Amino acid sequence: MVVFEEELENYFDNFTDLAQSFPLFHGKRHEDEDLDEDKAVGYFKGTFRVYPLPADGSDPPPRMLKNVPCNQLVEVLVRVYIVKAFELQPQDPNGLSDPYLALKLGRFKVKDRENYVPKNLSPTFGKMFELDGTLPLESELRVQIFDYDLLSGDDLIGETKIDLENRFLSARRGVCGLPKRYYVAGPYKWRDAELPRQILEKWCATQALPPPVWRGNSQVYVNGKTCCLRDYETRGQVHKDWGPPEERLALYTLLDLGLVPEHIETRTLYNPLRPEIPQGKIQIFVDIFPKSATIPPPINITPRAPQDLQLRVIVYNVQDVVLSDTSFTGEKMSDIYVKGWLKGQDKKQKTDVHYRSLNGEGNFNWRYVFPFKYLPAEEVMVIKKKEHFFSLDKHEEKHPVTFVCQIWDNDIFTPDDFLGLLELNLNFMPKANKFAKSVSLDDLPDNEKGKPVPMVSLFDQKNVKGWWPMYEEGGPDQPRELTGKVEMELEILSKEDAEAKPAGKGQEEPNENPHLDPPNRPATSFLWFTSPWKSLRYIIWNNYKWYIIGGLVLLLIIAMIGLFIYSAPGALSTKLIAKL
Length: 580
Known about the structure:
The protein is α+β, with helices and mostly antiparallel strands. The protein has six helices and 28 strands. Strands 22-21-20-15-28-27 form a six-stranded antiparallel sheet. Strands 16, 17, 18, 19, 23 and 24 form a six-stranded antiparallel sheet that branches. A five-stranded mixed sheet has the order 1-13-14-4-7. Strand 10 and strand 11 form a beta hairpin. Helix 2 packs across helix 3. It is elongated. The protein starts with a strand and ends with a helix.
């Protein structure tokens, strides 16, 4: 399918090969009156041809126009496929709009007001509308985009006008684009009212050419040229959904003759109040079918619905985390916990705290669970949320699926200290290391050395496990600093698989798939003011035991000396009296 960056008629001479449009104006009431060329009262469509007459009085030359369409009314079915709009001018004070579609063909009007897209300047519509019309009476199709307003009248953002009659009459055949291949089944099934061979014969008739001459089903002679099927299908492989060879060859020949291909055209929107200023663009394609023909079924261009997926992340361990605190005993330590979330979602999850890490290690065995909606074709996560509490509608946002992991130092009386960061785009993430000792900043795709890094997609592998570096960005002239290493397991599950293999957050029930045992932390990991006996044993005793023992011995010696001094005079006097 070809995507035209402008209006379709700009690429095909406004479809004026058969008839041109001439505006009609009111005549001047007096000689001094200026003719306003912007206020046409109608249009005359026709073609003028000037024939030179022979000087000898012989017969005039043959007519240049043949097979002119009849002047009867033609009832048609018009299908308007609207893909999306973009660069719309905002109409609301918040700098956004709530666009919806409206169409007008003669007296037939359609307003899709109930399906407005809230707070969006580049809405994806994916809509198809069918309108009945009569050519040439109802030949102007208007596609409009309005801004939905709850209390006041809706504002016209912009509109575009399409001359259906010119497309219908043109030999370029602007009624239905021709695909590159002729399929009789599958998603690319032929969607025209006429077969390629019929279209080719009709084109030759309108161009006053002899009908096509077929030589079997693989060669055709048209307009002085022989077309062979093998010239277009060079690989020699025939798809199971392709149609007969003569129809395929007719289609290839039509495309070579310059007929309109299957396409999406990009049209500029204008507002009558500001006719010279573009108000945005809209991408559409239009099919026109005479009701006398067999009309094929429409195609479905509804936007893809996002898949319900679940991301499970298990944080096992961290190592070599920087120690940001100093205890009152003078030890370097950190109270480590790990926070994680999907970028774009407001809900963040975090592990419990590994208290008093003295060597930069932390043990968690903690599970995060993040449900999200995913569009595989665009590789983005879809989030619908309200802008603020009083918003009536949820607006849609699309973000890359990025998991953010951070290491923090827990503080009770002051704000927590940030220690390190890791961001993983799950569609394009660095491969994990098997061992912590081999982890470095060179494992990141944007490393300073420019070293190539093997990348993987979690959506392809479904499950990855290993070690990744945690870092802190330096200043303007300072490099990144490696501030830790984290061991994680990441897993993507569909909604059905997640329901079949349930797992709770953290270590909550159901603690399965896999089962997570409590972390094996050293005895020194505790919160000091909630465990006074542990504080006495592991903090005071471990650091001051020799001082304590020495103090106790000194106190015992002093007590013994004091006791001796206190009891010695009495004992001495008792012995002296006994001798007397």
